[in-house]
Design brief:
This protein is mainly β. The chain has 1 helix and 14 strands; from the N terminus they run H-E-E-E-E-E-E-E-E-E-E-E-E-E-E.
């Protein structure tokens, strides 16, 4: 037995099929449509007023105007994470030295959370583990250097990135200590 299909029924069916196809492609994007790594994002410029002179060089920091949402496939805990990043600058360095992520501490006043820098460069995928590889030490050469600085705010399920309140970033080099105080990530820091 054959049934006649009206133009109206045909248009409803094709419209529904198109809607299902579009929704399916959107869901794929929601799952893991995030970049594998930060790549080489544009770092904020550091104003000369945002440098603090130490005994043999100056250190400065820009705004945290950049964010990166990671891909859970490459995170060790299987969750997407939020990262804030900025530019960390060194001027008039007399002799080269090695910078460690442990020299940089973040203290978030909301919740009184303290953590070290996550990576001192744009992290990559480790070919052996297929997980993120962070840079825990980097060379700072004589003259002027600017490097990316990342902090891992945690799982997207635990952190509301739009409500990151005031925080301090402290750089320590032996007896020298400089604290950059931010009222929000997008603000220019004050130096203590």
């Amino acid at each position: 037995m054959s049934e006649l299909i009206t133009r109206r029924t045909f248009l409803k069916a094709t419209g529904a099929a198109a809607l299902v196809a579009a929704a399916g492609s959107m869901l794929v994007g929601c799952g893991e449509g995030y970049g594998a790594t930060p790549g080489n994002p544009t770092l904020p410029t550091i104003d000369t007023l945002n440098y603090k002179g130490l005994s043999s060089y100056s250190v400065g920091m820009g705004t945290f105007s950049g964010t990166f949402e990671s891909n859970s496939v490459y995170e060790r805990d299987g969750c997407r994470h939020y990262y804030l990043y900025t530019a960390l600058g060194f001027q008039s360095v007399d002799t080269s030295f090695s910078l460690s992520k442990n020299q940089i501490t973040f203290t978030f006043k909301k919740g009184n959370i303290s953590k070290n820098a996550r990576s001192l460069d744009n992290f990559v995928i480790d070919s052996a583990t297929q997980k993120y590889k962070y840079f825990e030490t980097v060379p700072i050469n004589t003259g002027n250097s600017v490097i990316p600085l990342y902090v891992d705010l945690g799982s997207i399920y635990d952190v509301d990135i739009s409500h990151v309140g005031p925080f301090d970033v402290t750089y320590t080099d032996g007896s020298n200590k400089v604290t950059f105080s931010y009222s929000s990530p997008l603000d220019t820091p004050t130096i203590k």
